[in-house]
Structures are given as structure tokens and as C-alpha cells.
Amino acid sequence: MEQENILATGSAGKLLFRLALPSITAQIINVLYNMVDRMFIGHIETIGSMALTGVGITFPIITLISAFSGLIGMGGAPLAAIEMGKQNQKKAEKILGNCFTSLIITSIFLTAFILYFQQTLLLFFGASENTISYAFDYLTIYVCGTIFVQISLGLNTFITSQGFAKTSMMTVLIGAVFNIILDPILIFGFQMGVKGAALATIISQCISAIWVLCFLVGPHTKLRIKKENLKIEQNLLCSILALGISPFIMQSTESLLTICFNTSLQKYGGDLAVGAMTILTSIMQFSMLPILGLTQGAQAIISFNYGAKQKQRVKKTVSILLCCCFCYSFTLWLIIMVFPQALIHIFTNSPELITFSCWALRIFMAVSCLMGIQIGCQQSFLALGQAKVSMFLALLRKIILLIPLIYILPLFFENKVFSIFLAEPIADSISITTTSILFYIQFKKILSKLS
Fold it and tell me: What pLDDT, on the 0 to 100 scale, is given for residue 100?
């Protein structure tokens, strides 16, 4: 009850930062969580560059696994928060129970499917004879921990949506600490190479999953996993999937996008270009995930007060959110443009790969200064339960714009590799403009209905 009172009456600005700071911290930790494997792998003696490229080939599959957790978790959590705002505790817990069961079923299906088809998938995603063995070794072990990834990522959103941002942060922090400790021990100490990196990751995810489950069945949570809510209800699941399809598209198309980039770059630039793309993707994650942490902190406030029909609190929270998202993305863009080599050096010691990645990074991230607006608007639509608009925006940037540009632009440029990297800022510019205009129009309509 105290948590609900805070969401309903606390100062919007102070409450946003109170909830967002742990979420931002969690996202930064999550970036390090994902990056630490690549950092250690890239510095393995003699094979570092090829091993890093091989692990980069697995990103589409790893991203797809995370996307399914977002489909269910990020679809269910805002709905549960809206029901809490309506004082409908029973339905909110029913949503949580349905999501828990769905995550278990999904993890079993994904594990079986990927293990059976993994070699075919890796070759299709751009693996070469030099990198396939590293990709196969890493993915085989990682996929066995799919159930831990689904639970820790999918259910952690329900902790954040209740306003327990610090607890949500601990989910990521605990896993990251164990991963950072285990990586050098397994990679170098036990000389397991990329297998050690994958094993360290799934052990860490297992510990995070246990933490989440202990909280959601314990005495401190507002929403609790209960046996009577585990049976899937078709209408409820459809509502969850309808809202979750937007974050699913955002993440799963990242997987498709990586495939398109890797196969095109392999064709025109070889393993060096694919290795550079692995580094660029890592830096892009560092740029965008903290913004997602900020929007997750705001989601609890927006969704709860939208359900409670508190128009002014919704409007003020969204305004503060968009301002903060822009300031962050602009600041980080400036750092990337001025100091690209320092960031790239984190992942590799290869002079050739560093030189190649520097110019590619400046092109690839040219419009990232405005991406805060794109993500802030899109996630606000999600928090307000606007499934259709959010889904369109998710499709626009990657499917409608970016993927076609990856294949069209090389037809008009002599430097094919340059044109592939150029596709990113062109797609970003168009999608940011479209999103901003659409949000301005739709948000006014949403607020008028609350009146």
C-alpha cells in the first residue's frame, strides 16, 4: 500500500529519479554483463580476434532468446501495473502467474529448437570456416541456460513495475558480479576459452533467476506468484502478447538486423568487417540500454497513474523522461565522436581492427545523439498500453527502413562497406522524425481521454 501511495502522490521528478537510477544502474551493469565476455575473449592470446568474431556470430540467437523474455515480461508488467492502479490486485497477480508459465514453456521450446538447428543457423548468420568452431562452442553451452535467462529477464520486469527498482537492480548486479568473477577463472584459469565464457554466463543467470523467484514468492512483493494463477487463460495471454509484441520486435529484429549486417559485411569486407561490427554493436548497447533503464523507472509511474486516470502526473512524468533521454544520448554521442579509439581498445589489441572500427563507429553512430527521443517516445507508448502504435514504431526503424537500406545503398556506392554502415544513421533520422511527430499527435489524444 505504501508503494502504491508513492506512485500516486510522490513528486513526479523525484520519484522518476528514485526509480530510474537503480534501473539505469542495472542497465549499465547489464551492458557490462554482456560486454565482459567479449572483453576477455578478445584478449585471448593468438586467437582473440577470431574468437571475438565467432562469438559475435551468436548474437542474433542470444538476442532472440532475450526477445522472447521481453515478449512476455514487458507485455505483462505494464498491464499488471495498470491493474494495480485500478486497485485490481487479483487480476494483476493472474497476469504474473500466466507470464511465469509462459516463460517456462517458451524456454523449453527455444532450447530444443536452437540445439537441433544451431550449426545451420550459425552458417546462415555469417560464420566462416575460421569462426564457426568458436561460435558453436559458445552457443552450445549458452543455450542450455535459456530457462534461467527467461526467468531472470522476463520476471524482473514485474519487480520494476511495482516500484522496487533497487531489488530489480540487484537481480542484474548479482549476476554481473558472478560473471565478472567466473569469466577469467574459467577462460584463462581452467583454459576453457569461449566455453568458459558461456559457462560463466549461464551460472550467473541461474543465480539471478533464483533471486527473482525468491522475491516474487516472498513477503515483500506486492504481486506474488501463486499456484492458482499458473494456468494460462487465453484472453489474458492474448492481451499480454499484444502489448509485448512491440519490445519483442525491437529485440528480435535486432537479431535479424545483425544477420543482415554480418552477411553483407562478410561479403564485402570479410572477417575484419564482421569483427568491427561486433565491437560497434557492443558500444551501441552501452549507448542505448541505460536509456531503457530510465524508461523502465518511468514506466511504473506512467502505467500506474494512467490506470488511476491522473492526467497531470502522466504528462509531467513523460516530459521529464523525454528531456533526460535526450540529454543522455547527446552526451554519450559526443564522447563517442571525440574518443572512439579509447572505447574500441576495450575489446581488442589488434591495430588493424582498431583502425577499421574507428571510422566505422563514427558513421554508424552519427545520429545516435537523437536516439533518446526515439526510445523515450516508444517506451512511453508501451507504458500507456498503446500496443499498435508501439509495434508500428518498432517495425519502422529496422524492418521498413534499415534492413532494405543495408542491401540498397551498396548499389550506389563504390565503397560497399562504408555504404552498409551508412544505412544506420539514415534509418535513424527518418524513424526519429516520424516517431516524434506521431507521439506529439497521439499523446494529446491520450491525455484528452483521461480528462
Answer: 97
